[in-house]
Amino acid sequence: MKPAEDSTVIGKSVIIRGDITGGEDLYLDGEIQGTVTLPENRLTVGPNAHIMADLEVRDIVVHGHVEGNIHASGRVDLRQTAMVQGDIYTSRLSIEEKASIQGRVDVGATGPTITVPKQTVGEPVIAAPLFSGTKG
What we know:
Largest sheet: 11 strands, parallel
Distance between the termini: 42 Å
Order of helices and strands: EEEEEEEEEEE
Radius of gyration: 17 Å
Number of strands: 11
Shape: globular
Number of helices: 0
């Protein structure tokens, strides 16, 4: 995994305890304990990273381990090596096969809401359309 050219890089041997705020894209591959606030920027969590922090970002790509809640105004992208322990709040979510999440996922009001009726064992599953109404 190679960081983008215009990103600030925090390497795998770096340990930070405290709060990180910024106004540019950030690539983290070390250990962070605290909070990360990048409301207008992208955070990339590298494959060696162990992040123990609540994250507030525009977009995030996770390759490593995150313990904490993720609040993303844009997109959350969990790659196959991602391990997230915490809640995810976002408007868009992408999860690759083998990525792991332990927590709740809340995809914001901009996405469709799907209500599935409660089923008991042995009842057939009823398929419902994702969208209702006419095309606009």
